[in-house]
Design a protein that fits this description.
The protein has 367 residues and is α/β, with parallel strands linked by helices. The protein is 38% helix and 13% strand. The protein folds into two domains: 111 residues, Aspartate Aminotransferase, domain 1 (Alpha-Beta Complex), CATH 3.90.1150; 222 residues, Aspartate Aminotransferase, domain 2 (3-Layer(aba) Sandwich), CATH 3.40.640.10. Helix 7 links the parallel strand 5 and strand 6. Helix 3 packs parallel to helix 9, helix 6 packs parallel to helix 7 and helix 10 runs parallel beside helix 12. The protein is globular and about 60 Å long. The chain starts with 16 loop residues before the first helix and ends with a helix. The protein binds pyridoxal-5'-phosphate. Pyridoxal-5'-phosphate (PLP) binds next to helix 4.
Length: 367
């Protein structure tokens, strides 16, 4: 065989059967194009708290030659303070994606089906496959809402656990706390994982239920409402035995998932309540205006409690719309998936970015 045939490094012959069988998550693109209106990955359009940036600078100025605290104690204490929990009820990870991956390993077994909505965050199926967990998707109702009654009835017959995002992704639709409590009761023998990545933008958190429900694990992130997607910080809250299981998995994988800069920046961001409220309120305000403008253009917009809207145009193909927007340097997310292939997921940007999106859509639609 000629050596130039293919690079040995890219030869699947060296892949383990497990690696070859994976179906990895495909994140939204992060192109480096100047002037791009980037509304495709639900990042916050505003910068993080200046206090977080200052704290990161201070952390960088001294101490990087030492490993960080393996338990991220300062961060766990800051989360615990803010949410009225004990530090033993908080686990921290390198982005909530990592926290979710550890939680799937720690709580869901290989012999009972994990229940999750058929339309939800794509990474859940990926983690399940990575860890060999069978998933039984539960259909959203006709309005693309989580069907709590059906899900609770299915869970009561026995299951390996439940995972939901609340508000759900990519629909943006949230469930009230009492509905989720119904799931916790129906699935008492297994963990119910509630991913609250977007809860700060108008959802109702189930953190107050942690004290009452030993099977509840709540996962949150600093990527969206704290504008720190680039720092990679997420956390989970639950009763101490759940947190202990996550710590066991973490310490079987990477003892130091959070570096010194991440902990310093995250603590400062969590303590800057004024910055948090101001930027969060701006996103929520802009979302409401954007939804109205999209409706004026003929879109149907699902009621969003997140920092994005999920919308479809009855007269236009969603993939074609996304492509036409891209030609005009506006990026939105399209999922070529059953049930949602005619929707666009549009992150809420600054007012200026949303105006640019609407102007591009007016041009495309000939409005
Ligand atoms: C963005 C997102 C995450 C991942 O957040 P990171 O903390 O950045 O890893 C998790 N779950 C959902 C539903 C998300 O949309």
């Amino acid at each position: 065989m000629a050596m130039m045939d293919s690079s040995p490094l890219s030869t699947p012959a060296f892949w383990s059967p497990r690696a070859a069988a994976l179906a990895p998550y495909v994140p939204g693109e992060q192109p480096r194009i100047a002037g791009l209106v980037k509304l495709n990955t639900n990042e916050n359009p505003y910068p993080p708290s200046p206090r977080a940036i200052e704290a990161i600078g201070q952390a960088a100025a001294g101490g990087l030659e030492r490993y960080p605290d393996p338990e991220s104690t300062l961060l766990r204490e800051a989360v615990a303070r803010r949410h009225g929990l004990a530090p033993q009820q908080v686990f921290a990870g390198n982005g909530s994606d990592e926290v979710l991956a550890h939680a799937f390993y720690a709580f869901f077994s290989q012999d009972e089906a994990l229940l999750c909505p058929d339309v939800t965050y794509g990474f859940y199926r990926v983690y399940a496959q990575l860890h060999g967990i069978a998933v039984e998707p539960q259909p959203l109702d006709a309005a693309l809402r989580i069907d709590v009654d059906a899900l609770a009835a299915r869970a009561a017959r026995g299951c390996g656990g439940i995972v939901i995002a609340n508000p759900n992704a990519p629909t943006g639709i949230g469930l009230p706390l009492a509905r989720i409590e119904r799931l916790l009761v129906a699935c008492q023998r297994r963990v119910v994982l509630v991913d609250e990545a977007y809860v700060d933008f108008g959802g109702e958190s189930v953190l107050p239920l942690v004290e009452r429900h030993p099977n509840l694990l709540v996962v949150q992130t600093l990527s969206k409402s704290r504008s720190l997607a680039g720092l990679r910080v997420g956390f989970a809250c639950g009763q101490a035995p759940l947190i202990e299981a996550l710590t066991r998995v973490k310490n079987s994988f990477n003892s130091y998932p959070l570096d010194r800069l991440a902990v310093a920046g995250a603590v400062a961001a969590l303590e800057d309540e004024a910055w948090f409220r101001q930027t969060r309120d701006a996103v929520v305000d802009t979302r409401e205006g954007l939804a109205l403008q999209l409706e004026d253009l003929g879109f149907e917009v699902l009621p969003s409690q997140a920092n994005f809207v999920f919308a479809r145009h009855p007269g236009r193909d969603a993939a074609a719309l996304a492509a036409a927007l891209r030609e005009r340097a506006v990026l939105v997310r399209h999922f070529a998936q059953p049930r949602i292939a005619q929707y666009l997921r549009i992150s809420v940007g600054t007012r200026e970015q949303c105006m640019a999106l609407v102007a591009a859509l007016e041009e495309i639609l000939g409005a």
